[in-house]
Specification:
alpha/beta, 6-stranded mixed β-sheet, 3-stranded mixed β-sheet, 14 helices, about 10% strand
Length: about 325
Amino acid sequence: MMKNYVSALQKSAKLLGHSTGPTSTMVKHLTARSLCSAASKYNFETLKLSTPQPFVVHVELNRPDRLNSFNKRMWIELGQCFSQLHDDPDCRAIVLSGGSAKHFTAGIDLLDMLKLGQQLGEIEDTGRKARLFEGLIKLYQDSISSLERCYKPVIAAVHTACVGAGVDLITAADVRYCTRDAWFQVKEVDIGMAADVGTLQRLPKVIGSQSLARELCFTARKFKSDEALACGFVSNVFESREAMLKQAIELATQMATKSPIAVQGTKKNMVYSLDHTNQEGLDQIREMNMANLQSEDFINGVMAQQSKDSMPVFSKL
């Protein structure tokens, strides 16, 4: 039966104008277009981008003098960065880290909040103050959600402290790693506010426990790497930052060797299915695969599996 299926695929490939060799298309694409380094393509003030491996982009938070705390510029640039990586054919997987800073992030930059206070002080009307807050909160929400909306898998690599907005940020990632000395804190109630950019929505789903999620959010208590691993918040703990980044980049590299149509379609459907019924998720993936199963990636992938060849090198998407 499998031989007949592969034969049918080969015929389909010819009809669609695809090569029946698993790697020929990619060879042509690599000859025509070389990979462009993220360092030369992107220039952000609060983020540093690099390309440690083909199709892997390393995004580093880059405010070490402020412990990678979130100011307005970082909020804006995070949204811009992941929106652009979403469409970047040279990016297939992303590692997000705290770079060289002492902590992954200290959360919201309180100096930035003081500036906001001064701005609010110049507005007397309550309705107009509320309108200012509405715009800012929406900006910050969209910034965090850009990780989730980006079709490329995002691996968060956390060292030492990950506070407040940092928890919002990494709950929107696909995979979370941390170092042994890492600790996490949903800090917002300690500064008189409810978290409003993603933690309350995503954390219960990430750890699968409403009880623990509410305990953490109501008390703002710290939870360390061992508890984070036990509850499923992170999937791996490492003894050093170097070991963590090495493994994160290796994982991203492995993802980047797979079909970009397959991986990105998988993320799209998994994110969609979080907030929809099983049947709605099935309906969406069926509609997606009506087109995706006609791609050269599927044809070449099946043929490589059948012939026991190494996986094909897939062309840019």
